[in-house]
Amino acid sequence: MDREAQRMVRGRPCKVKIIRKRPPINQFSPRGRIGRPGHTELAFEEFEAIRLSDHTGLPQKDAAAFMGISQQTFSRILRKARIAIAKALVNGETIHITGGRFKLSK
């Protein structure tokens, strides 16, 4: 059983995160690499955390409130997103933005 399935079976249920809109692209590919590079997946809520914190410069507390989650959860999502992006940059991998547990804000 994978981690996500285990989390669904025991413990608190995962809270749905709120995102403003879907990203304008769903894939980011490196140039200059011959052949097909590997890929790294980035969930929509991870993309939103990067957008809010690093792109718009919101403090984590405000960004977490915007997404309807705690600051600790936001920090965890942001850390995971940064690790995924760093891995893709260092290894020359494609970043696929897909999946996650979220709902679009109105």
What does this structure look like?
There is one protein chain. By secondary structure, the chain is α/β, with parallel strands linked by helices. Helix content is 45%, strand content 15%. The strands form 2 sheets. A 3-stranded mixed beta sheet has the order 2-4-3. α2 crosses α4 and α3 packs across α4. It starts with a helix and ends with a strand. The model has no long low-confidence stretch (mean pLDDT 82).
Strand content: 15-25%
Overall SS class: alpha/beta
Kindly report the average pLDDT value.
82
CA distance, first residue to last residue: 35 Å
Instruction: Give the strand order, joined by hyphens, for the main sheet.
Output: 2-4-3
- Principal-axis shape: elongated
Oligomer: single chain
Summarize the structure.
This protein is elongated. The strands form two sheets. A three-stranded mixed β-sheet has the order 2-4-3. Strands 1-5 form a two-stranded parallel ribbon. The protein has helices at residues 3-9, 44-55, 60-67, 71-91, and strands at 17-19, 27-28, 39-42, 94-97, 102-104.
Question: What distinguishing features does this structure have?
Answer:
single chain, alpha/beta, 106 residues, three-stranded mixed sheet
